[in-house]
Specification:
The complex is a heterodimer of chains A (about 290) and B (about 300). Chain A has about 290 residues and is an alpha/beta fold. Chain A is built from eight helices and eleven strands. In chain A, strands 5-6-7-3-8-9 form a six-stranded mixed β-sheet, sandwiched between helices. Chain B is mostly helical. Chain B has a single domain, classed as ABC transporter involved in vitamin B12 uptake, BtuC, CATH 1.10.3470.10. In chain B, helix 12 crosses helix 13. Classes of the chains: A alpha/beta (about 290), B mainly alpha (about 300). At the A-B interface, helix 3, helix 5 and helix 6 of A face helix 8, helix 9, helix 11, helix 12 and helix 14 of B.
Chain lengths: ~290, ~300
């Protein structure tokens, strides 16, 4: 964000000020270059209040990097990110984050409720004194995500779906405006994945929180997504699913012909040769992305 | 009653000045090691703790050459090694093991040299035994302020950083996203580990000091699922096994084969092991309202997910 060209910084500053009220997340011209390779190139999109957005792309498309840029864990080579109008460190307080599947030691003496409590004050120094208000807040959050039944279990001993609920509670308890989830459906069976999606959809609409969820498979998200950000070869196309998930748009994004086929409410993206297009490293030097 | 008391505490136990000093320094060292050890185990840094203990041999043996308190040697070299391990790349698990191994190897090489000089050039022939196996009964009272100082610093670090340490051991990314300086917090934790290991090195020796770091912590974690209780429990357990070891060592003076007592370090480590094994045998308590045990690593998805739909 810091290495933005001056002329551009001036215009984006004005744009950000104008968009601050409207957009919860504003990603503008973000490029990330690591070791001479563009991981992300000129990615631009925004998310409004309470919107449910899928960040779709194959493995290696740059989804995790983009989430890390939004979180402020990775500085972009150029471009800006603002959350709720905040461009700098202050935006961290406005984001709830659920990282990619983490390995937790089953013997770790941390209960589900401890982890949720850390979402409230885990960054603070000193010991947390047991306050009734804090406990109530944690209990309430655990109930809201359906995790009350295993609140006193060690988090490392919970199943994948249960851990996701606890992580979501951890992310939500600080009342963020934006919830970022990195591949929360990976390693979940179909029924738990659907339960997690339904939970996120409910939270998003009930609490007016914007949700950005990364996934390599978009079909489970189709019923709940308001908008989609499709990443391929480091470039992004964004809009509603009917705007983005189309043969012309995705072909231009991938840089060669792909077919988008809709069958029984499911979307299949198929490469020209007929192979399913779930492979990274497609020509990143094609012409710039469409729909922007 | 008196007979039982006399059987447990051999006559003269409560009147002996070396015993008082041992109870104090041993207790303080064990308390700090237990509390800090809970975080070391939680963060998967028990290998780092082990390496720091090995490296402290260098400081201990060096301190005899220059004539300073061995605790200064242990702590000084330990904190230095912690900083080097952090610089070399302790953050990534793989880099961490490599960095730890390299620093440890270098430290032990120097320790060999210093111990050789201790025995050949200076007349401190007992240095090797003292450094390796501790000197709880032969400590000088002058060391007490230094012991207390190291203990206060180590405890202050983990009390102040308790929550960021916990959060970053669950997931460094998660902690960083909340604005925690993950690297700085990790370095401070490593320094606390170095100090704790130094204190235990003084009392039960560098070779065995990790037993007090890891043993009580691992035992406490088995018995409680709360992080705070695990740390306090480990600290108290450490004190209990140390004091128990001192009592047994004092009792052991008339024992065979040599009739001049068994080393206190042996008893401390033996009691630590007994506690750990007993804790492993103890049934895992399940919280009320959830009859079925959480499924093990393998059979997780199916059964567990079903229950969520209820």
């Amino acid at each position: 964000m810091s290495s933005n060209a001056p002329a551009r910084a001036a215009t984006t500053a004005a744009a950000t000020a104008a968009a601050a009220d409207a957009e919860v997340l504003d990603v503008d011209g973000v490029t990330v270059r690591i070791a001479g390779r563009d991981i992300l190139r000129d990615v631009t999109f925004s998310i409004g209040p309470g919107q449910f957005t899928g960040l779709i792309g194959s493995n290696g498309a740059g989804k995790t990097t983009l989430l890390r840029v939004i979180l402020g864990l990775q500085a972009p080579t150029s471009g800006t990110v603002s959350v709720g109008g905040e461009r700098h460190a202050a935006r961290k307080g406005l984001i709830g984050y659920v990282p990619q599947k983490i390995q937790l030691d089953p013997d770790m003496p941390v209960r589900a409720r401890d982890l949720v409590g850390l979402g409230l004050d885990g960054h603070r120094f000193g010991l947390s004194l047991p306050r009734r208000g804090r406990r109530q807040q944690v209990d309430e959050m655990l109930r809201a995500v359906g995790a009350a039944a295993f609140a006193d279990e060690r988090v490392g001993q919970l199943s994948g779906g249960e851990q996701q609920r606890v992580m979501i509670a951890h992310a939500l308890i600080s009342s963020p405006r934006l919830l970022l989830l990195d591949e929360p459906l990976a390693n979940l069976d179909i029924s738990s994945a659907q339960e997690i999606i339904a939970l996120l959809d409910r939270i998003s609409s009930e609490r007016g929180i914007s949700v950005l969820i990364s996934a390599h498979e978009m079909n489970p998200l189709l019923p709940v997504m308001d908008t989609v950000v499709y990443l391929a070869g480091g470039r992004a196309a964004s809009g509603t699913t009917s705007e983005v998930v189309r043969t012309e748009v995705l072909s231009a994004l991938y840089g060669h012909h792909v077919d988008v086929i809709r069958v029984h409410g499911r979307v299949l993206v198929i490469a020209g040769g007929g192979d399913a297009l779930d492979i990274p490293g497609l020509d990143p030097c094609a012409e710039p992305g469409p729909s922007r | 009653m008196t007979a039982i008391l006399n059987a447990v505490f051999a006559p003269g136990f409560f009147g002996s000045a070396p015993v008082h000093l041992a109870l104090l320094t041993g207790g303080v060292a064990a308390f700090v090691s237990g509390a800090v050890g809970a975080f070391a185990v939680l963060r998967g840094q028990s290998y780092a703790g082990h390496a720091l203990a090995d490296i402290s041999v260098t400081g201990g043996s060096g301190s005899y050459l220059v004539g300073i308190s061995p605790l200064l040697g242990f702590a000084g070299i330990g904190v230095l090694a912690a900083a080097v391990m952090d610089m070399v790349g302790i953050r990534r698990p793989r880099g961490r093991d490599l960095a730890t191994g390299i620093v440890r190897g270098a430290g032990l090489g120097l320790a060999a040299l210093f111990l050789f000089w201790d025995t050949t050039h200076t007349s401190t022939t007992g240095a090797a035994v003292t450094v390796l196996f501790g000197s709880m009964f032969t400590l000088s009272p002058a060391v007490v302020p230094l012991v207390i100082g190291c203990a206060v610093v180590a405890l202050a670090i983990i009390v102040i950083l308790a929550r960021p340490l916990l959060l970053s051991s669950v997931s460094p990314d998660l902690a960083a996203a909340r604005g925690v300086g993950v690297r700085a917090v990790g370095l401070m934790c490593l320094i606390a580990i170095a100090l704790a290991v130094s204190l235990s090195a003084l009392t039960i020796g560098t070779i065995l000091s990790t037993a007090l770091l890891v043993g009580p912590a691992a035992t406490a974690m088995r018995l409680t699922r709360r992080p705070g209780r695990a740390a306090v429990g480990a600290a108290l357990l450490g004190v209990a096994v140390t004091w128990g070891g001192i009592v047994l060592a004092y009792d052991s003076f008339p024992w065979p084969p040599s009739h001049d007592g068994w080393p206190v370090s042996f008893f401390v480590v033996a009691l630590t092991l007994v506690c750990y094994v007993l804790a492993q045998l103890a049934p895992q308590r399940r919280p009320a309202g959830r009859a079925t045990p959480a499924p093990a690593e393998t059979g997780r998805s199916g059964a567990a997910e079903f229950r969520m739909g209820e």
